[in-house]
């Protein structure tokens, strides 16, 4: 059985190796996603309060860079020093501090933050409950936990069930490779052993991601009073956005697919969580 210590070390090793190339390998740095996330953070600053934000698993500061224009105080934690060294903590309007710390053992006082964020993080954890219990503890009453780009179990299941060797369309082939052969790509490009990625992303590779209904039950059992889990990024959405012929249709397609849920849940790659204390 893989232990928490092994998962932590695999994540440190993985992200230390990726620190110099992370922005080049992660699609969430693209302008369309940054704009989407900024809209969400603006809404959170209005609804939950803009005094304080904690970004867990902050990495190189993707959320921090966006949030510094909308919050007065930001803290970020991560277990990888090499990633924290890339965070830009400069701001004329916001106090920013980052720390090496485990999500499950945070040193912050109870009821400290208006908002806690985790972007592309929770599939790197050994277990969800201890981490979300800590998030609940440090949130102020009425505060909101926002997580994003969490792998959707039903999408991964659909990809895994595709027949091997099929002649897929370029879009499907890209997703097929990303789900089933990402570790081979990282080994070829950066010399990262496949087992390192698989252990670092254990809740994705070992358990196949997350079911929205399971996340809602877990968070309500921890004590969150309002929990909403949204399906994000349908297959091919990036292609639609970047094509001059279809870019104006992206939102309409997204709305149509959302209207057909739960029938269409396997078409969305990720989940987004909004949970209020």
Strand percentage lies at 15-25%
The CATH class of the domain at 4-151 and 196-234 and 271-276, by name, is Alpha Beta
> Pairing-aware structural class of the strands and helices?
alpha/beta
CATH architecture of the domain at 4-151 and 196-234 and 271-276: 3-Layer(aba) Sandwich
Mean pLDDT: 94
Tally of DSSP helical segments: 14
Written account of the structure:
It is a single chain. This protein is an alpha/beta fold. The protein has a domain at 4-151 and 196-234 and 271-276: Vaccinia Virus protein VP39 (Rossmann fold). Helices cover 44% and strands 20% of the residues. The protein has a seven-stranded mixed beta sheet. Helix 4 links the parallel strand 1 (52-56) and strand 2. Helix 1 packs across helix 10 (194-200). The chain is globular, with a radius of gyration of 18 Å. The two termini are 33 Å apart. The model has no long low-confidence stretch (mean pLDDT 94).
SSE blueprint:
Elements: H1 4-18, H2 22-25, H3 31-47, E1 52-56, H4 62-67, E2 73-78, H5 81-84, E3 95-100, E4 113-119, H6 128-138, E5 139-151, H7 153-160, H8 170-180, H9 182-190, H10 194-200, H11 202-205, H12 212-222, E6 226-234, H13 237-242, H14 250-259, E7 268-276
Parallel strand pairs: 1-2, 1-4, 2-3, 4-5
Antiparallel strand pairs: 5-7, 6-7
């Amino acid at each position: 059985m893989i232990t928490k210590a092994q998962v932590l070390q695999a994540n440190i090793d993985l992200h230390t190796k990726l620190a110099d190339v992370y922005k080049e390998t992660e699609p969430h740095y693209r302008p369309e996603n940054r704009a989407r996330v900024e809209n969400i953070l603006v809404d959170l600053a209005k609804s939950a309060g803009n005094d304080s934000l904690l970004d867990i698993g902050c990495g190189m500061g993707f959320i921090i860079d966006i949030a510094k224009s909308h919050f007065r105080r930001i803290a970020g934690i991560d277990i990888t020093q090499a990633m924290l060294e890339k965070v830009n903590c400069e701001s004329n309007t916001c106090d920013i501090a980052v720390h090496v710390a485990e999500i499950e053992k945070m040193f912050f006082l109870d009821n400290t933050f208006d908002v806690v964020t985790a972007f592309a993080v929770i599939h790197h954890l050994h277990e969800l409950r201890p981490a979300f219990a800590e998030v609940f503890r440090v949130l102020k009453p009425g505060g909101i936990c926002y997580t994003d780009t969490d792998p959707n179990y039903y999408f991964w299941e659909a990809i895994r069930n595709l027949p091997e060797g099929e002649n897929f369309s370029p879009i499907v082939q890209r997703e097929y490779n990303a789900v089933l052969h990402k570790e081979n790509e990282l080994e070829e490009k950066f010399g990262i052993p496949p087992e390192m990625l698989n252990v670092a992303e254990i809740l994705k590779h070992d358990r196949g991601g997350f079911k929205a209904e399971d996340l809602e039950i877990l968070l309500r059992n921890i004590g969150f009073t309002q929990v909403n889990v949204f399906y994000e990024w349908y297959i091919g959405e990036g292609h639609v956005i970047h094509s001059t012929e279809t870019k104006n249709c992206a939102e309409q397609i997204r709305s149509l697919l959302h209207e057909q849920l739960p029938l269409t849940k396997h078409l969305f790659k990720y989940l987004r969580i909004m949970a209020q204390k």
